[in-house]
Automatic annotation (TrEMBL):
Protein name listed in UniProt: Malate synthase
Coiled coil regions, renumbered to chain: none
Family: Belongs to the malate synthase family.
The entry's keywords: Glyoxylate bypass, Transferase, Tricarboxylic acid cycle
Native organism: Dactylosporangium salmoneum
InterPro entries (alphabetical): Malate_synth_C_sf, Malate_synth_sf, Malate_synthA, Malate_synthase_CS, Malate_synthase_TIM, MS_C, MS_N, MS_N_TIM-barrel_dom
């Protein structure tokens, strides 16, 4: 294990961890920490201030102080090599099998996920970096417990875009000058350090809440490029617009990162979570119906994606669509047909709206996404030329949450509790993405489940079908009933779910108390 000054790494340590945690790599992480962690913590404190203002009655709007940025003429950097054509992007965690399957999937891009689809178990953090490094070197292979052998195929491989953790998460196994380091800087720093010469260092940036947070990432990138003598713009980043406040700062976020920008992505699941979270105490104007009925065509979601495409194309940036959660099945043709239909409809809407490409959760969904985008793009690599000047979205349109049609039902509540607990059980055991009821569940979708329960409970909601009030007792009773049929010991996951779904204090991210429970 490397021995950089002021850095302490704490176990457990696997066989090849020393190949990632070298003295030089840890010393780079320490430099990043010393240069940027103070600002990270200040920006997290600013989030709290904004949230307190919202609770006191404030709202979101386009910022008066950045009007100049919105009105000036500027464009982001030209699309970087390997990112010109992003018509189909597969996402997934970085364990060896998924890494190989994603790289053999035929997608144009692989989002290598250390975020929503990953439990940041120390082993996952370091082994993920090993797998990425080995995959980039072409040497990654894997044999499953059943004896199936996995190797990288000969065909063209997707461009790798790595997604580090969000600014809010610490990495408690790396202490710098006695303080836990940042999960974002750890994931970014290790990936950049080990791979910037072997491949193009591209990133997806999650869960940002302001252009000041984008400025911090931009400064981190400039620091890394300068430190290793790489030209400006070597690093590229696609920002997920997946928080409510960020939707009001899309132009500013692109502007801050303009030399490093690779566009924006519509991260629908965290966006929905953020909408619930930010206005959770503000009563009926922000109350959403059952999660599964909030589709991408309800007014406030439509406003957000339309504005995203228009904003990106005005600035020469790619607009990338999000994740339809339906998972295909190789065993059940009925489930498979429904997934292909639902995902197909979602991708058709995105391609028609001007998105340049979109996400899929599973290799069997790559063809449907590709065919739909092929049909719209034809021989063009993207549709940056579709300016969508017909789109006009106001702050009121983005805020029109209360206009969402639908009902709050007992079935919706049961689904939130059951799926939420099952997901947390998987997360605590080290798996950050799972299929439950043929739907992809990850940290973002679980956040919706638990925050929706919290919101209904704390806004005195009566269910539309039964008339029953949502109380702690009802949620506990539903948990008893739903979990009884599932088997296994779900006690730890249930306790965590109750902490984040019914306690009076709203926990910012469920991954924070969940991470505290990890070794
Ligand atoms: C809100 C957001 O942030 S969305 C982005 C984050 N979320 C994700 O990335 C989720 C990605 N998807 C997944 O993790 C998986 O598809 C799951 C967990 C939902 C379902 O996975 P499984 O239960 O393994 O599905 P299934 O059994 O149908 O998989 C069939 C094969 O495809 C592989 N596979 C499935 N999804 C993926 C993927 N995303 N990447 C690579 N390979 C995959 C499986 O490893 C399996 O391979 P095998 O036949 O060699 O064993
Ligand atoms: O990260 C994507 C999302 O939808 O959340
Ligand atoms: Mg997300």
């Amino acid at each position: 294990m490397g021995n950089a000054t002021g850095v302490e790494t704490t176990g457990p340590f696997g066989d090849r961890f020393a190949e990632i945690l070298t003295e030089e790599a840890l010393s780079f992480l320490a430099d990043l920490h010393r240069a940027f962690d103070g600002r990270r913590l200040e920006l997290l404190a600013l989030r709290k201030e904004r949230e307190a203002a919202l609770a006191a009655g404030a709202t979101f709007g386009f910022l008066p102080e950045t009007r100049d940025v919105r009105e000036a003429e500027w464009r982001v950097a030209e699309p970087a090599p390997g990112l010109e054509d992003r018509r189909v992007e597969i996402t997934g965690p970085t364990d060896a099998k998924m890494t190989i399957n994603a790289l053999n999937s035929g997608a144009k891009v692989w989002l290598a996920d250390h975020e929503d689809a990953n439990t940041p178990l120390w082993q996952n953090v370091v082994e993920g970096q090993l797998n990425l490094r080995d995959a980039i070197a072409g040497s990654l292979s894997y044999t499953s417990p059943e004896g199936k052998r996995y190797t990288l195929g000969e065909g063209p491989r997707p461009t790798i875009v790595m997604r580090p953790r969000g600014w809010h998460l610490p990495e408690k196994h790396i202490l710098v000058d006695g303080a836990p380091s940042s999960g974002s800087l750890t994931d970014f720093g290790l990936y950049f350090f080990h791979n910037h010469l072997a491949t193009r260092p591209y990133f997806y940036l999650p869960k940002m809440e302001s252009h000041l947070e984008a400025r911090l990432w931009n400064d981190v990138f400039a620091f890394a490029e300068e430190r290793f003598g790489r030209p400006t713009g070597t690093i590229r980043a696609t920002v997920l617009i997946e928080t409510f406040p960020a939707a009001f700062e899309m132009e500013e976020i692109l502007y801050e990162l303009r030399e490093h920008s690779a566009g924006l992505n519509a991260g629908r699941w965290d966006y929905m979570f953020s909408v619930i979270k930010k206005f959770r105490t503000r009563g009926r104007d922000f109350l959403l119906p059952d999660r599964n009925t909030v589709t991408m065509t309800v007014p406030f979601m439509r406003a957000y994606t339309e504005l995203l495409v228009r904003t990106c194309h005005k600035r020469g940036a790619h607009a990338i669509g999000g994740m339809a959660a339906f998972i295909p099945s190789r065993r059940d043709p009925g489930v498979n047909r429904v997934a292909l239909e639902k995902v197909g409809a979602d991708k058709r809407r995105e391609a028609g709206d001007g998105f340049d490409g979109s996400w899929v959760a599973h290799p069997d969904l790559v063809p449907v996404c590709r065919e739909i985008f092929d049909g719209v793009l034809r021989d063009r690599p993207n549709q940056l030329d579709r300016l969508r000047e017909d789109v006009s979205v106001t702050a009121e349109d983005l805020l029109a949450v209360g206009a969402t049609p639908g009902r709050r039902t007992e079935e919706g509540l049961r689904n939130a509790v059951s799926v939420g607990v099952q997901y947390l059980d998987a997360w605590l055991k080290g798996t950050g993405a799972v299929a439950i009821n043929n739907m992809m569940e990850d940290a973002a979708t679980a956040e919706i489940s638990r925050s929706q329960v919290w919101q209904w409970l704390h806004n005195d909601v009566a269910l539309d079908d039964t008339g029953e009030r949502v109380t702690r007792e009802l949620v506990e009773r539903i948990a008893d009933e739903e979990l009884a049929g599932l088997g296994g010991d779900l006690g730890a996951a249930r306790e965590l779910f109750m902490e984040v779904a019914v306690a009076d204090d709203f926990v910012d991210f469920l991954t924070i108390p969940a991470y505290e429970r990890m070794p």
